[in-house]
Amino acid sequence: AQTVTQSQPEMSVQEAETVTLSCTYDTSESDYYLFWYKQPPSRQMILVIRQEAYKQQNATENRFSVNFQKAAKSFSLKISDSQLGDAAMYFCAYRSALWGNNDMRFGAGTRLTVKP
Amino acid sequence: ETGVTQTPRHLVMGMTNKKSLKCEQHLGHNAMYWYKQSAKKPLELMFVYSLEERVENNSVPSRFSPECPNSSHLFLHLHTLQPEDSALYLCASSQGELLAPYNEQFFGPGTRLTVL
Predict the structure, then answer these.
(1) Which residues of B touch A33 (CB under 8 A)?
(2) Residue A50 and residue B40: Cβ atoms within 8 Å?
(3) Burial level of A114, CB count in 10 A (0-12/13-18/19+)?
(4) Given B9, B11, B13, B76, which residue has the most CB atoms within 10 angstroms?
């Protein structure tokens, strides 16, 4: 079964600086999707960024980018120019590309604090 | 209302009570999910419904009973719960035939459940 590991329970960053959150996963599949979700104190999880495993180019969404290393099974999230509103729990998630697949596997999360 | 809504936001119940959690999605999606989020643990998928039919039950105890009367509504009926069932229960929805894995899941704000 696929597992997702986030080795940093907590991280902090100074406002306007850059922080990288780590995620590794274990799978025997060659095609899959990876996601980063953000859960602010309001609790509503929102998608930050998505990566398809068959695409070599790293996904980017404004200040958020990923470093996807397929061979190393690593999927880190870089937040540039951190803002106070970035403070939240961040979850890495894996989903098989098999049609009909129901299971999205989540990591335990990283709590990000942004210091003014 | 927009997105995915959940009621109630907070629920305290005794072990002998019967209660229900409600989820409603306003996105026109055809798949809905229940997740359990416990402290310092990854999200656990409980139930998946696609086109109002249950397609997955991840070995959830029978004291949790889901119901999906239509594609916009999802319920989780609770009875004779245990204190270890205290957690945040998240509902999500997604669009796509056969639960296409590239489709983003949209989450509700969750119900914080406390079992005394």
Answers:
(1) 101-102
(2) no
(3) buried
(4) B76
